[in-house]
Amino acid sequence: MRTFLLLLLAVSPLHAEWQNLWPGEAPGAKRPPVGTETVKEGGRITGVEVPQYALHKPAAGKANGAAVVIFPGGGYSILAAGHEGTEYAEWLTQRGFTAIVVKYRVGAGLGYQYPIPFLDARRAIRTVRSKAAEWGVKPDRIGVMGSSAGGHLASLCATRFKDTFPEETSDEIDNLSARPDFAILCYPVITMEPIGHSGSRNNLAGNNPPAELLEKISTEKAVSADTPPTFLVHTSDDGVDCRNSLLFATACREHKVPVTLHMFEKGGHGYGLKGKGSLAGWPDLLDGWLAERFK
Question: Which of 180, 249, 266, 290 falls 20 to 30 Å from 29 in CA-CA distance?
Answer without folding.
Answer: 180
